[in-house]
Amino acid sequence: MTATEDAPTTESVRTEAPAGLARTISLPMLVFYGIGVTVGAGIFALVGEIVGIAGRRAPWSFLVAGSIAGLTGLCYAKLIARFPRAGGEAVFANRAFGPGMARIVGFGVVVIGTVSSAVISLAFAGYLRDLVAIPEAVVVVALIAGLVLIAARGVRESVVFAAAITMLEVGTLVVVAAYGLPLLFDGEAGGDVVATGGVGTGVIFAGAVVAFFAFVGFEDIANMAEETIDARRNGPRAIVITLVVTVVIYVLLAGIAVSIADPARLVDSDAPMATLFEILSGRDGRLVSAIAVVAMVNGVLVQIVMASRMLYGMSNEGLIPAAFARVHPTRHTPVRATFAVAGAIVVLALLFPLVTLARVTSLVTLFVFAAVDLSLVALATRLHHDDPDFGRARWLGATAAAAALGLAAWEIVDLAGG
């Protein structure tokens, strides 16, 4: 079966099969899902770390990371429009390079989902302990246990829950930004902070590697394709909207963070966004800590949903055992895959520190993104005679792959030198 024949046939089968995934997600719900998984731990938990690495150039780190993510986002948009399947990255790689590469890419996406969820779980524990003294391990296990029950119950319930929390977390960031906007127009604002990421423009790229973690999530939209209404149109639109909103929020807040009198306070804080709110408003930051806790719950939930759909999609492609493709007869969710992902998250969160996990997530994500970009190059080259418009996208894929691999190389050199 050819690539052009596969997508519509598969889509119709998934719509009609009673044991398959149910199409219940509209464009607004998909956008909330994308923003909810992208905007979260990256800005609530890591803004202090990135200010410490890049100093006053932290906004540029977010902009560089967002630009690289944006290039790959456009590649995802092109590929989703042609192959609207659960297990998106593995499907793309399978069509382009065969099952060997598809397995590598698919498991890479599962690693991203589980490791980033572990990062968010640890950040959640840090913010929660800012409110009440509870052991970290207890917090992590209780969080994952509760969220896996929501994820297994049904995709509509999961996405509606995520959308509600997304409105809360984005609203909170808008309030923080409103307090800090005057600083952006004050040419003398901003104290000194020692950048640990190197010298010159090097600190921008060192910060961008960690900041890139903040953009992990938009690609999850690809794995919801079989549960999205009119996935060929709504999937690409949701990716573009998610990335635009995310870049604007991150760069704005990073600019405010380096404009306060003592940015080093954010570097030393376990709850940097709450600390930033306290500095800007003079009010108690515990409310922001509470909202950050809720926002991180959202991030973990959507990553559990994403990683389980990747395992489901890989199983449907014949890349891993068929057990992971089994769907609950009434809930229409891949329950076995969901519980497998949840167990991996708990293990990682209890064994590794937050920043190490974030850097691993960023590096794996960059390689997965490069593989997706190169899949677009291969498929567009192969099909350019039949579809000239899709064929021209190979130049987009080549540019995006070069950018992702360049940032990955920078991280590897930095790790080797450190």
Structure description:
It contains 18 helices and no strands. By secondary structure, the chain is an all-alpha fold. It has one domain: Amino acid/polyamine transporter I (Up-down Bundle), CATH 1.20.1740.10. The N terminus is likely disordered.
Principal-axes geometry comes out as globular
CATH top-level class: Mainly Alpha
Structural class: mainly alpha
According to DSSP, the number of beta strands is 0
Characterize the biggest β-sheet: none
- CATH topology-level name: Amino acid/polyamine transporter I
The CATH superfamily turns out to be Amino acid/polyamine transporter I
Mean of the pLDDT scores?
81
List unreliable stretches of 5+ residues.
Answer: 1-19
Number of helices: 18
CATH arch. level architecture? Up-down Bundle
What order do the helices and strands come in, and which of them pair?
Blueprint: H1 3-16, H2 27-38, H3 41-44, H4 47-54, H5 58-82, H6 88-97, H7 99-129, H8 136-153, H9 155-184, H10 202-211, H11 231-257, H12 264-267, H13 272-281, H14 286-316, H15 335-351, H16 354-383, H17 388-391, H18 393-417
Helix pairs in contact: 2-9, 2-11, 2-14, 4-10, 5-10, 5-11, 5-16, 5-18, 6-7, 6-16, 7-8, 7-14, 7-15, 7-16, 8-14, 8-15, 9-11, 9-14, 10-18, 14-15, 16-18
